[in-house]
């Protein structure tokens, strides 16, 4: 019988500008969990990018695992969970969504629930509150999702993204909760129609791989970026400098404060080399698109 599982979950970027709470893209930066059955719960964090001094009962992975077991009327056995993360916390790279996806997968494996990918995605999106980061972490690639009035999550998953991305990660945190509080609760009709049209053009451009046009619409969000710009250090400077250096477009990654540029694959390394000395306090790197989503290996 299997008693060891290794769970790997990609981080993600959400929105890509106007795809607010709907578009996600899985990135090749990972949260990994090595799970072993034992007689009590224990979390061991082997990375600086994980919360410190968290009691088991307050640990997001444990809370999600327990809630998942309760939902499917399963008994969750005690586990030792060794965690590594390449996803800095509260930076807009989907750390909490990856932890939610990992917690669901942990229970799926140790309780042998055999949940379908659709069920895991729906549950993760519900727990996260929106289906952008969570859907990308489950499926990999580009995800475009929305919920029908009956609660059904509908999703389109495109894995053949033929462009590159570079992230500018600042050395400051921004809690998603804070970055959501600042948004208006209502939008004027004409404004909302324009915002929605921009999102449609972003989505269509991504799906037909017209990345130059996708980049233009990444920079024309009306749903959240105008209200969050002041929370993002060097927002305008990075966008302009990135554009001058050949990026198709630059947007806030999720709720920020990281920003992400879309650029052609053949230019991304030179782009990163050019940006590093201009924004020395940032961790700037090319990040591959993950196309596998959550993965499990058993021993
Ligand atoms: N890898 C993780 N393991 C355990 N808990 C996590 C992990 N990532 C995030 N959390 C918890 O989730 C909560 C929200 O985290 P955080 O602020 O990083 O997420 P977020 O605001 O959704 O941002 P982002 O999506 O940018 O990572 C915090 O309580 C944090 O401790
Ligand atoms: N779509 C979300 C992503 C962060 O969870 C937002 O922009 O607030």
TrEMBL record:
<comment type="function">
    <text>Catalyzes the ATP-dependent phosphorylation of L-homoserine to L-homoserine phosphate.</text>
</comment>
<dbReference type="Pfam" id="PF00288">
    <property type="entry name" value="GHMP_kinases_N"/>
</dbReference>
<feature type="domain" description="GHMP kinase N-terminal">
    <location>
        <begin position="60"/>
        <end position="141"/>
    </location>
</feature>
<dbReference type="GO" id="GO:0005524">
    <property type="term" value="F:ATP binding"/>
</dbReference>
<keyword id="KW-0963">Cytoplasm</keyword>
<dbReference type="InterPro" id="IPR006203">
    <property type="entry name" value="GHMP_knse_ATP-bd_CS"/>
</dbReference>
<dbReference type="Pfam" id="PF08544">
    <property type="entry name" value="GHMP_kinases_C"/>
</dbReference>
<keyword id="KW-0028">Amino-acid biosynthesis</keyword>
<dbReference type="InterPro" id="IPR014721">
    <property type="entry name" value="Ribsml_uS5_D2-typ_fold_subgr"/>
</dbReference>
<comment type="pathway">
    <text>Amino-acid biosynthesis; L-threonine biosynthesis; L-threonine from L-aspartate: step 4/5.</text>
</comment>
<keyword id="KW-0547">Nucleotide-binding</keyword>
<dbReference type="GO" id="GO:0004413">
    <property type="term" value="F:homoserine kinase activity"/>
</dbReference>
<keyword id="KW-0067">ATP-binding</keyword>
<dbReference type="InterPro" id="IPR036554">
    <property type="entry name" value="GHMP_kinase_C_sf"/>
</dbReference>
<keyword id="KW-0418">Kinase</keyword>
<feature type="binding site">
    <location>
        <begin position="88"/>
        <end position="98"/>
    </location>
    <ligand>
        <name>ATP</name>
    </ligand>
</feature>
<dbReference type="InterPro" id="IPR006204">
    <property type="entry name" value="GHMP_kinase_N_dom"/>
</dbReference>
<keyword id="KW-0791">Threonine biosynthesis</keyword>
<protein>
    <recommendedName>
        <fullName>Homoserine kinase</fullName>
        <ecNumber>2.7.1.39</ecNumber>
    </recommendedName>
</protein>
<dbReference type="GO" id="GO:0009088">
    <property type="term" value="P:threonine biosynthetic process"/>
</dbReference>
<dbReference type="InterPro" id="IPR013750">
    <property type="entry name" value="GHMP_kinase_C_dom"/>
</dbReference>
<dbReference type="GO" id="GO:0005737">
    <property type="term" value="C:cytoplasm"/>
</dbReference>
<dbReference type="InterPro" id="IPR000870">
    <property type="entry name" value="Homoserine_kinase"/>
</dbReference>
<comment type="similarity">
    <text>Belongs to the GHMP kinase family. Homoserine kinase subfamily.</text>
</comment>
<keyword id="KW-0808">Transferase</keyword>
<dbReference type="InterPro" id="IPR020568">
    <property type="entry name" value="Ribosomal_Su5_D2-typ_SF"/>
</dbReference>
<feature type="domain" description="GHMP kinase C-terminal">
    <location>
        <begin position="206"/>
        <end position="276"/>
    </location>
</feature>
């Amino acid at each position: 019988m299997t008693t060891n599982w290794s769970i790997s979950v990609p981080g993600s970027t959400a929105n890509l500008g106007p795809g607010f709470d709907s578009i996600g893209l899985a990135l090749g930066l990972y949260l990994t969990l090595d799970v072993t059955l034992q007689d009590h719960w224990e979390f061991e964090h082997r990375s600086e990018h994980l919360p410190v001094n968290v009691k088991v009962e307050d640990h997001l992975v444990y809370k999600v695992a327990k809630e998942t077991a309760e939902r499917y009327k399963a008994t969750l056995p005690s586990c030792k969970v060794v965690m590594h993360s390449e996803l800095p916390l509260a930076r807009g790279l989907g750390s909490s969504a990856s932890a939610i996806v990992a917690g669901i997968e942990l229970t799926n494996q140790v309780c042998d629930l055999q949940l379908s990918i659709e069920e895991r995605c729906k549950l993760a999106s519900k727990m996260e509150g929106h289906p952008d980061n969570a859907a990308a972490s489950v499926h990999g690639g580009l995800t475009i999702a929305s919920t029908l009035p009956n609660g059904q999550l509908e999703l389109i998953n495109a894995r053949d993204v033929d462009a590159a991305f570079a992230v500018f990660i600042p050395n400051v945190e921004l809690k998603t909760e804070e970055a959501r509080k600042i948004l208006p609760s209502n939008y004027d009709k004409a404004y909302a129609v324009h915002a929605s049209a921009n999102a449609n053009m972003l989505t269509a451009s991504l799906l037909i791989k017209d990345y130059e046009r996708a980049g233009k619409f990444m920079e024309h969000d009306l749903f959240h970026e105008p209200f969050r710009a002041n929370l993002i250090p060097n927002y305008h400077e990075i966008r302009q400098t990135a554009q001058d250096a050949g990026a198709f477009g630059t947007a806030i990654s999720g709720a920020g404060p990281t920003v992400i540029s879309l650029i052609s694959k053949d230019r991304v390394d030179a782009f990163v080399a050019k940006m590093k000395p201009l924004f020395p306090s940032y961790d700037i790197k090319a990040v591959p698109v993950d196309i596998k989503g959550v993965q499990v290996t058993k021993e």
